[in-house]
Amino acid sequence: MARGPAGAAAVLGPLLWGCALALQGGMLYPRESPSRERKELDGLWSFRADFSDNRRQGFEQQWYRTPLRESGPTLDMPVPSSFNDVGQDGRLRSFVGWVWYEREVTLPQRWTQDLGTRVVLRIGSAHYYAIVWVNGVHVAEHEGGHLPFEADVSKLVQSGPLSSCRITIAINNTLTPHTLPPGTILYQKDTSKYPKGYFVQNTHFDFFNYAGLHRPVLLYTTPTIYIDDITITTGMDQNTGLVNYKVFVQGSEHFQLEVRLLDEEGKVVAQGTGDQGQLQVPSAYLWWPYLMHEHPAYLYSLEVRLTAQTEAGPVSDFYALPVGIRTVAVTENQFLINGKPFYFHGVNKHEDADIRGKGFDWPLLVKDFNLLRWLGANSFRTSHYPYAEEVMQLCDRYGIVVIDESPGVGIVLTQSYSNVSLQHHLEVMEELVRRDKNHPAVVMWSVANEPASYLKPAGYYFKTLIAHTKDLDPSRPVTFVTNSNYEADLGVRLGSPHLFSSPLPVFWCSPDACSNALQGRTAPYVDVICVNSYYSWYQDYGHMEVIQLQLATQFEKWYRTYQKPIIQSEYGAETIAGFHQDPPLMFSEEYQKGLLEQYHLVLDQKRKEYVVGELIWNFADFMTDQSPQRAMGNKKGIFTRQRQPKGAAFLLRERYWKLANETRYHGSAVKSQCVGNSPFTF
Ligand code: GCB
């Protein structure tokens, strides 16, 4: 489905790798402060899906020019929420094309009259392509459904006597080979089987393509001279914590900056001036992961105060950023946090729940974190796209370590390796790093999940993408998650960096195949090898007895080739809660437990050598496209979609707390852990 007027704007410029962050401006989370106010726009918006044949009626009739109710009927639509599951209209659930959201907002008088106030509209996420108008004037366009974008609307709201404004957002959920994630539209032309113009959206990933305004939308203010971005990196020198800061200011070149670091008691422990520098914190408290230390997730507060003189008088801006002091490093067989071996015992998640789809929801978020901590999970991967900023903030606060993944999932078509796709993927990594760079919980970037890394252009694509991500953030390792079987993966067969520095080995393949293989190799570029495998599920169905051999082979082959630490980034079994069968049969709770136990036997051997983590697939059941393989979604959760435990949750809980005790940094056995005021006891 063509994206219409917006499609043209998605045409992309020259490739940008190798240079510093190319995005204009920062994306600091909007926090209230003495100089900044917020106005949440969550609640009911007016909504209409454009069901016209070409889906462009809204543009042809310019629905953004007047209130939406004047151009036709509207529905009430909650924000944040996916639009798909809240209604009773089956056509809306599977709708592909443009939908229109609108909200009238009354603004505080100062915002519309004080020209020293900057008013910004921020959209946490709009899946997938969004165009925004304020009072009928185009203010922003954004491609990508999982990262925030903003528009400075000061001039518009300050230009007349109005004390309200009308925000219109058109969103298109169409996925093409060049979007992230990619997809294709299949037009069915056989009129004996399908009505004229019939098309469906096809995707190559295993979750439902929910769409809409998924995260909070808000207006916030800053002064016109303001703190636009802050970049923090941290380190340790003996017992002294090092906080390197860089502050970016917009609106003037003449300003003063004061920076103070406060501990959890509010005591100033270090201070500096100017737009960059290093703060030194003697006897610093480190940010430790949950269950790794008796006081995990220690957060300082970096207070940045800007002052400037203008003709209209003094201006000041204030922003407080939570800061965790910690280091991350990778050796040949270890993942180190604060110099100590860290073992990921955690989960893969999805942003997914009944009714709200991918809509952000505080009760759901708090429940999920309570379950994670009950489980003894110390980490998760944001499979398969960046999660809401509020999720990342809770990870910082609770010490839940994050592998932060881009929406690069389902990259399996050759077209999705084109320069247009690569350019977009590079920009998405820029947006992701810009948003999440200051979270201590984020310890690694994942640029993709299960791409067809055997295709010819994959080598160049991933080499470029990973190099760019490392340029953007040299302080964190980078990975992508592979499901390649060692033997089937051309890249692995030929890709060892050691092979290239020694005399060329005798290859079994033809010159053409060799050159394909060399270009297809991708694993040499990653710092940690993340492997997904589903032994006795997608192969050798029902034969749990082969798991140990196959898993041990998988680990050995990968490790012997690359000498890099390995994470079992997915494993699991489809399980329908309440199905019981002993001896175990597939889909029963007993089979899920049995399969996990077989994996654990091998993980327990290999974690003594080079395996540095295990992430179960999946935390909870989640919705997918309809298919004969999926019974109302993917059921590999250890919790149901309603967050109730299956038997495997208890098994994993036992294991994770045991692992925590074995891999804990110091102190006696851990029976419980307090984070903030909430105790979690095994
Ligand atoms: C995978 C994918 C994940 C799927 C899972 C499954 O390898 O990474 O997105 O949901 O397998 O259950 O098939």
TrEMBL record:
Pfam families, per database record: Glyco_hydro_2 (PF00703), Glyco_hydro_2_C (PF02836), Glyco_hydro_2_N (PF02837)
Compartments in which it is found: Lysosome
Limits of the Glycoside hydrolase family 2 immunoglobulin-like beta-sandwich domain: 225-326
Residue ranges occupied by any Glycoside hydrolase family 2 catalytic domain in the UniProt entry: 328-660
Domain Glycosyl hydrolases family 2 sugar binding: 39-223
EC numbers for this chain: 3.2.1.31
PROSITE patterns found in the cross-reference section: GLYCOSYL_HYDROL_F2_1, GLYCOSYL_HYDROL_F2_2
Signal peptide location: 1-22
Family, per entry: Belongs to the glycosyl hydrolase 2 family.
Protein name: Beta-glucuronidase
Species this chain originates from: Equus przewalskii
Gene name, Swiss-Prot/TrEMBL: GUSB
